[in-house]
Amino acid sequence: MTVGTGSTPARLFYDPGCGPCTLFARASEWASRSRLRAVPYDGREADRELGGLSEEVRFASAHLVGGGGRSSGADIMPPLVSLTVGGEAGRVVGRTPPLDRSLRWLYSRFWSYRQTHGCGARGAAPPSRTG
Length: 131
Prior knowledge:
With 131 residues, this protein is α+β, with helices and mostly antiparallel strands. The protein has helices at 19-31, 44-50, 55-60, 77-84, 87-95, 97-116, and strands at residues 10-14, 36-40, 63-66, 69-72. Strands 2-1-3-4 form a 4-stranded mixed sheet, sandwiched between helices.
């Protein structure tokens, strides 16, 4: 996924009813230095950008929307690294399978925590990897 197209920041959609999700989204927004906006799932922009997703899938994970399309779940991690740390770091993640797997594992642990602590769509599986 290509992130941030010129003056249009990428959007990180998150569950506003989940404290850890909100903290993660806001910290990512701050760290991106205006390359990313944190947007709650329950707004008009989310309806427009994520309208094709069922509510269960929408609330099951974070979604990152940028110039190259949408990533969901653990697939947001490499482009999120590019947005928050810098493009070269994102490329390193992409070329280093153990690092990529580690970031995806961290995301899956976070997702598991959300499910067991009442956040997100209970019982929903994380979206499958798209590629």
